[in-house]
Automatic annotation (TrEMBL):
<feature type="domain" description="Putative regulatory protein FmdB zinc ribbon">
    <location>
        <begin position="1"/>
        <end position="42"/>
    </location>
</feature>
<protein>
    <recommendedName>
        <fullName>Putative regulatory protein FmdB zinc ribbon domain-containing protein</fullName>
    </recommendedName>
</protein>
<dbReference type="InterPro" id="IPR013429">
    <property type="entry name" value="Regulatory_FmdB_Zinc_ribbon"/>
</dbReference>
<feature type="region of interest" description="Disordered">
    <location>
        <begin position="65"/>
        <end position="88"/>
    </location>
</feature>
<feature type="compositionally biased region" description="Polar residues">
    <location>
        <begin position="78"/>
        <end position="88"/>
    </location>
</feature>
<dbReference type="Pfam" id="PF09723">
    <property type="entry name" value="Zn_ribbon_8"/>
</dbReference>
Length: 88
């Protein structure tokens, strides 16, 4: 079940678990004071990943220049000389 953290103005932060991921989870009712609370968004925790996985994620974010030799040899198909009657 996914856990969501919310912030109540009176009581502070609390966490709720929902059985479904569908629906609007931007607001919830505080279990203590019954007021509306807004959801708190946290950045992903990349520190728990291994160093190798973190570097692969970071490298994937920036474009990489590839030389023609690195792509391998692809044979380019030459199109047959097709007559197009609509072109004069």
């Amino acid at each position: 079940m996914p856990n969501y953290t919310f912030h109540c103005k009176n009581c502070g932060q609390f966490t709720l678990s929902f059985k479904s991921t569908s629906g609007n989870k931007t607001q919830a009712v505080c279990p203590i004071c019954q007021l509306d609370a807004k959801r708190v968004y946290f950045p992903p925790n990349l520190f728990s990943y291994s160093k190798e996985l973190r570097s692969r994620i970071e490298k994937g974010m920036e474009p990489r220049r590839v030389k023609k030799e690195e792509l391998g040899s692809k044979q380019i198909k030459k199109s047959a000389n097709i007559q197009r009657p609509w072109q004069v």
